[in-house]
Specification:
By secondary structure, this protein is mainly beta. The protein is built from 8 helices and 45 strands. It binds sulfanyl-(tricuprio-$l^{4}-sulfanyl)copper and dinuclear copper ion (CUA).
Length: about 650
């Protein structure tokens, strides 16, 4: 979301909210930082941070892991974008991770990291994240910090309301931002036939309890609104999932104006348990689709990509009791469920209040049929007053997202008035507001969307940072701001720039992750077909125009390091096994002039670089990671001869090969 989208809205908002613009564009924060702030974020050299924060990279397509409270960047985890830094999406083993029904798509826009949950609590096993542009959900294994699975979602456009976990990670769920005709339903239609031909589809991806493996279980076909965000119920509301909808006007052009007409849009409530039962009872309809399912193995150290051909759908208009709509002012964005699962908070970007819906009242309204009309004939709209627990009054301008602490408070970001507002969940009274710099999107409290928030900090992610950091030309970084929320008043502690544009982040106490870390891969368990387990096994094999180089890396040499008999026009596959069996000893590999990135090979892993030599000559290669005192010696040469040359294939290390 870019600030420019809001330029037109600001006058409208000012009208809506009266003239009060609390906290709008305050001056520098210098004076509002306490003297002990530095001490609170100082993590001494050699000490660990208390919290991991996983921040989406937005248009970088990746995830960044930070330590909190220091704000130190620990790692960029490549997910949807190729990453030349370690060869993700460049090596033969990882290329299949970025395969889709559209072919190789080496970029995406990632917004919402979601930690896996057990009993509504973050369990530190996996991190899911959405690809917004070419709809996908990825799973990162938090024992290795590697992306190990990506599943594409058919029938949708803009996988934005995604991926949100149910209470025990039974499903990760995603919904469409850009409704569209279903993939195979004769979709060459006029765009202005939107209301008739376009649909939304909610994807329920089943997650295996043991392995985390994902499977597209079913999709619910829903009215063609723009579905923006979601959260699952928990505790009493376990069976339900809540989605914000905007563009309930069903406009297909100039949404800036045409999707801001109605006073209220909706929160859509789906009884996913009931949908699951219907599917199990065989009520789903199988339809042909095409989507990729990519899985990475830590044993073969490679990914496979399978194109799946079918999904099951349920048209919600045919099954009463599945879907209800709660009216929500106005163009709602975030929807968040309180830790007790009793209240649903929806933030209307253009609304002057924050409505808080009651789950109990929703059930009552359903039982009493307190309806305010129907959508598509038989999808009930519940009466606003019947489902409302109350409104947070005068919260500020442009409420977007809410998280919760462990003491009964909620924290909501205000995009337009650039502040975080703290309010009490039980009586909806505002008790504090803090300026942020500037235009916050999401915020993250450790465990803040779970049943058991850890509290202590809130990290607010800001879109605009002009005047906050040393300038870097026209493009300035986005930022995160860390607040101490242990006391009554929020206290700003720290600012730090981020990777890409962070939308959401999730944060978790470090001990839930540290104890499960994989330090290296066991060589004995490496089943990559091109692995070699010792230098003795290294070889170079020509098969027609294909040459396979089976190479090893070990401090401080690559074996073999003199290779001849390569020819112009060959497809050369260099398979490198890192023989090290120790923590933190990767080796790198790069070839002069190769139209590819380097590889970074973890201990015990095998990784393959494809190279097409196009001219004759001597071509050096080397290790790119300063791995030992003799790292600079870790190098070698290829000899490339003309196509059809008589130079035989030869490889060696430690001797000068005889030239013929
Ligand atoms: Cu508010 Cu994509 Cu979750 Cu950005 S979204 S901020
Ligand atoms: Cu291996 Cu440098």
């Amino acid at each position: 979301m870019k600030f420019s989208n809001y330029k037109i809205l600001i006058p409208a908002l000012a009208l809506l909210a009266g003239s009060t613009m609390p906290g709008c564009k305050p001056g520098k924060a210098g004076s509002s930082v306490d003297a002990d702030a530095a001490q609170k974020v100082y993590v001494a050299p050699g000490k660990y941070d208390e919290i991991y924060t996983f921040m989406s990279g937005g248009f970088s397509g990746q995830v960044a892991a930070y330590g909190i409270p220091s704000g130190r960047l620990l790692k960029v985890i490549p997910v949807f974008s190729q990453n030349p830094e370690n060869g993700y999406g460049y090596s033969e083993e990882t290329k299949p991770m970025l395969n889709t029904s559209h072919g190789f798509v080496a970029w995406d826009d990632s917004h919402h990291p979601e930690l896996s949950k057990t009993n509504g609590e973050d369990d530190g096993r996996w991190l899911f994240i959405n690809g917004n542009n070419t709809p996908r959900i990825a799973r990162i294994d938090l024992t290795t910090f590697k992306t190990t699975e990506i599943i594409e979602l058919p029938n949708i456009g803009g996988n934005h309301a995604s991926p949100f976990c149910t209470e025990n990670t039974e499903y990760v769920v995603g919904n469409t931002r850009f409704s569209q005709p279903l993939d195979n339903a004769g979709n060459d239609v006029p765009i202005d036939s939107y209301k008739k031909n376009f649909k939304g589809a909610v994807s329920f991806v089943k997650v295996d309890k043991e392995t985390g493996g994902m499977k597209l279980a079913f999709q619910l076909i829903v009215p063609p609104f723009n579905y923006d965000l979601a959260h699952a119920g928990k505790g009493p509301s376990h069976d339900w999932m809540f989605f914000t909808c905007y563009n309930t006007e069903q406009a297909n052009t100039l949404l800036e104006v045409n999707a801001s007409q109605r006073d209220k849009d909706f929160v859509m409530a789906i009884n996913w348990k009931k949908a699951e039962e219907l599917i199990l009872a065989g009520k789903g309809t199988k339809i042909p689709v095409k989507y990729a399912h990519n899985v990475y193995s830590d044993k073969t150290h490679s990914a496979t990509s399978t194109i799946e051909k079918e999904t099951q759908i349920l048209d919600v208009t045919k099954f009463p009791g599945l879907v209800y709509y709660m009216p929500c002012p106005k163009s709602p964005h975030g929807v968040d469920v309180t830790p007790d699962g009793e209240s649903i908070v929806a933030s209307g970007k253009l609304a002057a209040v924050i409505p808080v819906f009651s789950y109990k009242k929703m059930l009552d309204a359903i039982a009493k049929k307190a309806y305010d009309g129907m959508i598509d004939g038989n999808l009930p709209v519940l009466k606003y007053e019947a489902v409302l627990r109350g409104e947070v009054k005068k919260p500020g301008l442009g409420p977007l997202h809410t998280e919760f602490d462990d003491k009964g408070f909620a924290y909501t970001t205000m995009f337009v008035s650039s502040e975080v507002v703290k309010w009490k969940v039980d009586n909806l009274e505002i008790i504090d507001r803090a300026p942020v710099f500037y235009s916050p999107g999401h915020l993250s409290i450790p465990g803040g969307d779970s049943k058991k928030p850890y509290g202590k900090y809130v990290i607010v992610m800001d879109k605009i940072t002009k005047d906050r950091y040393l300038p870097t030309g026209p493009e300035l970084s986005q930022a995160a701001q860390l607040f101490d929320i242990s006391g009554n008043k929020m206290k700003l502690l720290l600012d730090f720039p981020t990777i890409g544009e962070p939308h959401y982040a999730q944060s978790i106490p470090a001990d839930k992750i540290v104890k499960n870390q994989v330090k290296f891969f066991k060589l004995a368990e490496n089943t990559n077909p091109y692995a070699v387990k010792s230098e003795k096994e290294t070889k170079v094999v020509r098969t027609g125009k294909r040459v396979d180089v089976y190479m090893t890396a070990m401090r401080s040499h690559l074996a073999p390091d003199n290779i001849e008999g390569i020819q112009v026009g060959d497809d050369v596959y260099i398979h490198i096994t890192n023989l090290e069996q120790d923590w933190d000893v990767p080796h790198g590999f790069a070839i002069k002039g190769a139209n590819n990135a380097e590889l970074l090979i973890m201990p015990g892993e095998t990784s393959t670089l494809k190279w097409n030599p196009y001219q004759q000559g001597i071509v050096p290669f080397y290790c790119t990671d300063f791995c030992s005192a003799l790292h600079q010696e870790m190098q070698g040469y290829f000899r490339v001869s003309p196509a059809g040359s008589k130079v035989p294939v030869k490889f060696s290390i430690g001797v000068n090969p005889v030239t013929q």
